[in-house]
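Quick one - first record:
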Amino acid sequence: NQISEEFREGLDAFAFESGTSLLRQGQGNVNYSPLSAYYALALAGCGAEGQTASEILALLHMDSQEELAAQCQKLYQWFYYVNQWKQGQNRYYGGEEEGDAIKISSSVWVSESADIEKEYRDLASRQFFAPCLSVDFKSPKAGEAMGEWIAQRTNRAISAPIFPDPENRVSILNTLYFYGGWQNPFDEDNTKEDIFTLAGGEVSPCLFLNQTIEYGSFRKGEGFMVSCLGTADSELVFLLPEEGRRPEDFLESPQIFEEMMNPEKGEWETGEITWKIPRFSVKSSMDLKSLFQAMGIQKMFGETGEFGRLSRNPMWISDMVQETVISVDESGVEGAAYTMMAMGKGVMI
């Protein structure tokens, strides 16, 4: 289940390219899950043909649909079996659950008027572990069922209702859930109210987590400092601009963004670090269709989109949205996302 280095690099490139484009828009507090968007695009892309397929593969930094599906399968299986192994260890030793929880889920919701190719159903099931579920998009029960599916797979961190377009032919859903407990949890007795300064200069009182780590790792750059808080199996990366600098100043290019935020980049130092972090929970809803159109992706969002490997009926991506939530408190960080791609009736070309 080891993914290739090329796939890993492609995931990183997609994350920083799309993340930079999104965050540069300066729409306030924004969460974005590139991995959830990647899986939804990959599942759609494996049903595409012609220029549509070429655009999606280029966006995802992959050479072929076959390799894209194979690598997505390996990454899913890696997360799944690691979680299964941890649960088995806990049952055997009678301990509490340890480590990070990472769960990816996908599904394809199909209208009775859509004729999905058997080969695509098999590929979605076998390599994306995504069932094709029959649904009547004209019925309110469709949105209820989709919303419940999302809630169950995000530990109910996201439980918003879904209102699909009654004219949808197909909807592709992906969910991503993450929980990581801090390696060094914050003491609740040290959580104190203090002042947070907003981007416009206004101030807002909120609760701050407080902790001093004697031997912490950090990296300094021109106008910023980067450090990480470790969870059991991963890290949360923090960028602290120097006074007078804005986060937007560091989003000039994907390369600059990656240079700052990728823990494998740059020279790291060790020293005492004082952490003072707002305790927060932030939700975001965003239009990913506009994001990827601004990045030059056009064919799949037009009525002449080519998805002949998915269905013999003409289809196009009529909408693509993502909802996310991230919460940070004394014990750890929880994040969840869903990405939904709605496919409408296309035109013959």
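second record:
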Amino acid sequence: VSQRYLHRLFAAQGWTVMGWVREQRLLRADQALRARGSRLPIEAIALAHGFGDPSTSRRAYRQRFGCSAGTRRYGVK
């Protein structure tokens, strides 16, 4: 599959390739945050799901889910 064709396929679905990848990372990070018994720090979860910078992951998470990762995990603001 050529790069151009791949971009066309994603565009037809309303995504960019990187936008789709980011969405998948955020969804999987969200699952890890909500997993019962998970003791990994929030920053470690972000790193494990492809976010290299904590501030970038915090901003992306809040933008996507409308709350902070800490609120999602602990139910506090």
